[in-house]
Design brief:
Number of helices of chain A: 14
Number of strands of chain B: 20
CATH architecture of the domain at 103-274 in chain A: Orthogonal Bundle
Largest interface: A-B, 26 and 33 residues
Shape of chain A: globular
Mean pLDDT of chain A: 85
Strand content of chain B: 15-25%
CATH class of the domain at 1-90 and 174-257 in chain B: Alpha Beta
Helix content of chain B: 25-40%
Oligomer: heterodimer
Number of strands of chain A: 0
CATH architecture of the domain at 1-90 and 174-257 in chain B: 3-Layer(aba) Sandwich
Strand content of chain A: under 5%
CATH topology of the domain at 1-90 and 174-257 in chain B: Rossmann fold
CATH superfamily of the domain at 1-90 and 174-257 in chain B: P-loop containing nucleotide triphosphate hydrolases
Distance between the termini of chain A: 10 Å
CATH class of the domain at 103-274 in chain A: Mainly Alpha
Amino acid sequence: MKHHYIAMRLVKTVLVAIAVVLLSFFMIRLAPGDVATVMAGQSGYADEAYMKSLRAEYGLDQPVPVQLWKYVSAVAHGDLGTSYVRSQPVLTIIMERLPNTLLLDAFALVVAAVGGIWLGGIAARRPGSAIDNATTVLAMFFYSVPQFWLGMMMMLVFAVWLGWLPPFGIETMGADYTGLARMGDVAVHILLPGTTLAFYFMASYARLTRTAMIEVADQDFVKTARAKGIPERQVARRHILRNALIPLITFAGLQASILVGGNVLVENVFSWPGVGTLAYEAVDSRDNPLLLGIFIVTAILVSLFNLITDITYSIADPRVELGK
Amino acid sequence: MPLVSIQGLTVALPPGADRDKAVEDVSLDVGRNEIVCIVGESGSGKSLTAHAIMGLLPRGVTAAGGRILFDGVDLLKETPRALRKRRGRDIAMIFQDPMAALNPVVNIGHQVTEQIRAHRAISEAEALKQAGALLGEMGLKDVPSLLKAYPHQLSGGQRQRVMIAMALSLSPQLLIADEPTTALDVTTQAQILKLIKRIQAEREMSVLLITHDFGVVADMADKVAVMRHGRVLESGVVGEVLGNPSHAYTRALIAAVPRGESQLPPPPDVRPLVEVSGLTKRFRRGGLFSRGAVNTAVDNVSLTLSRGETLGIVGESGSGKSTLARCVIRLLDPDAGEILLDGADIAHMKPGELRPLRRRIQMVFQDPFSSLNPRQTVGDIITIGPRIYGEDPKEARARAADILRLVGLNPETMNRLPHEFSGGQRQRIGLARALMLRPDVLIADEPVSALDVTVQAQVLQLLDDVRRQMNLAMLFITHDMRVAAQVCHRVMVMRNGKVVETGVTRDIFANPSSEYTRALVAAIPGRQTR
C-alpha cells in the first residue's frame, strides 16, 4: 500500500513537471522582448540583419509549436537546453547553484523551527503574560517587515557598523580556504542571510506553536496524564508538545517548498550565489532556457518536499495513513 | 474512619463566571471498600467535586474552603509535589470519553507504562509486562498487539478498559470514575459497569462514581449523594434514597428516568404515509487513482410509518440509523430502494421535483448547540423556511408566535440569539423550526441525548404532545432503549446497517426475538434492581 502510494505520488510529480513546462513556456513568451533585444541593447548597435541572425541562432525564428516540440522532447531526454547568455548547459548551471540555496534554506529552516518552537512554548505556558505579549509583538514585527529591508538593516548593523560579519557572498573571495577553514568561512557568511530568512518564518513558528500548545493543553488526555501523576515537565513535553508539533510539519513542508525556489530578495541583497539570484539574472537577460530550467527543477523539488511532508506526517501521527 | 472525607468543600469560580461558587459546602464520605455515586445534572458541581479530590481543578477554579481528608491527610493542604505523587498511586481517575482521554499519538503500552514508571523505579520491559497482565485482567484479548496499538485502532469499550487498566496499575485505594460510560454504546456500557463492580469487589477498593443516570446508581452504588447547583441535597444508603427520596428534586430525577417499559398501545392500523423498501446506502472511500473500500451503511432496509404513529429506530453507533434518516429526508441520495411519500417515490426525484415535497418531511437534530445558526435570531431561524416557500413574512411571524407558544417558549424570544438559551430551550427552537413548515413527517435524530434527564423528560413529553396534536408521523432515532420505550409505538432495531427486528414496542421489550435485542434490553441500567 505504502509503496503503491509513493509510486503514484512520483507519477503525479512528473505530471506536475509537464504542466509546469507547458504553462511557463507560454507565459515567458508573454513578456515583451527576447534575448535578441537584450543582446542588441548590450552591444549598443544592432541592425535588423544582426537581430535576425541572433534569433535564427537561438531558434526563435521558428513557429512557437515547433519551438515547444523541440524543447519538450529535449527535456524528456534530460536535456534542459543551453543558456543563451552563458552558453553552458542549463542543468549544469542550476546544479552548481542549487546546493548553495539548499544550504541557506536548511540553515534558515532549522533556526526558524528551533527558535520559533522554543519561543512559542514559552508564550503558551502563560497566555496573556508579559512574555507572551512580548513574543507576539516580536513575531508580528518580523512577520510584517519586508525581508529585503530587514536584510539591509542586518547588513548595516552587523557588517558595516559593528564589522562582525561579512556583508555578502558565500565565502571570502580570493582566500581559497580548504577543508574545515572553508566550512568555517561559509558558516560566517551564512549567518546574515540565514537569520534574515529565519526571522520571518520563526515568527510564524512561534505563533503556530503557541496556538497549538494552548489548544492541546486543554484536551482530556493532558488531564489524564496529570491524573496519572506524571511530572509536569514530562506532561508538557510528551503529551502537549508532541501533539502540538504535528500541525507544524505541514507548515515546515510548505516553508521548504517556498524556500526551494530560492529566495530572490534575500539572496540578491546578500549576493548569495543561489538559485534565487540565478532566476533574477535569467529574467533580466531574457535567458528563457535557464528560467524554464529553474521552474522545472523547482517544481520537481516542491513535489518531492510535499511527498516527504506527507510521509513525515504519517509517521508523526499514527491516525494518518498514507493514501487515505 | 472513612477513606475519603470531604468536609464543607467550597469551590470558587473565577471572577466573571455566571456564579461565584460551583461547589458550596459539600460534605461527603467515601468508606473503604464501597461504591459511592454522586448523581446530578450538568452544572451540579459533581465533576468539580471529583476534580478537587484529585487536585486537578481547571485553571482559575480554586478550592476556597473546607477540607478533603484522605486517610486523615488534608489533600487541600498538600504540596503540589506530594499531590502529584499521590495521583495515580493512591487515587486514580477515569473519564467520560476514553477516546479523548488517551493520547492519540502514543501507543497503548507506553501510556500504561508511563504511569507505572512515574511512580516506581522499574525498567520499561518490566513495566510492559505488568501492563500486559493488567490489560488481560480487564478482559482484553490479544494483549501483545494491543500494547503496540494506538487509541484510534481500538473500540470504545476497549479504550475504556485500557483507561481502567491504567488507573488500576498502581493499585490505588480510590478510583474516581467521572461518567465512565456516558460516551459508550449501551451494551458496552453494561460491560464496563460490570467490570468496575467486579474489580472493586476483588481489590476491595473504594470507588467514587459520578453519573447523571439513576439507573447506573441503582446497579452500582452502596451509597449515593444527589447534587444540584453545587450543593448536596440528600445522601444516604442507596436503597433508602431510591426507595424513599426525601427531596422533591430527587423524586423528580428518579421519575424522569424513562422506565424502559412501554406504556404505549399498538399503533392504529391505517394506510402508511411513508413506505420505505429495500433502501440501501453505500459510502465509498478512495481518490483519483485508488478504488477504496465500500461501506454499506444502510443495507436493504424497509419500513412503514403512518400518521399519528411514532416508529423508533434503535441501534448503537455505526448501526446506520442516522444514515437511514438522512436518506429518508433526502439529505443523502440512496443507492437503491424506494421511499414512497403518499405513494410518490421521492428516492429518485430530481431536486426540482423534490423541492415542493421537502416541506413535508422535517428533522430535529441531536445537538441543539450546533444545529442552530448562532448569528440568526430565533425569529429568523424559524421563519426562514416558510418564507422560502413564499409565505408572507408578517404572516410567518404571526404563526411563529403560535408555534413558539406550542413548544413552550415565550414568543418574545424571537428577537434573541440561540446562545442565550439552554440546551432544552434550543431543542424546542429546533422543533419549532421544523413545525413551522407544517410537516407530515417529523424525523427526530437523537433529540434528547445531549440533554439532562429532567429536561429530556420534558422534551420527550413535548414531542409526544406535538405528534398527537398535529397528527404527525414521527421517526424517532435513538440509542437509548428506555427513551424508545417511552415514546414509540413500534420499534425497529438496527445493527451494522441491517434491520434486526421490528415490532410493537411492548412486544419487543417483553419478548425480544433476537439475541441482539435481548442484549440491548438487558443492558438497560437499573433493570435488575427494579
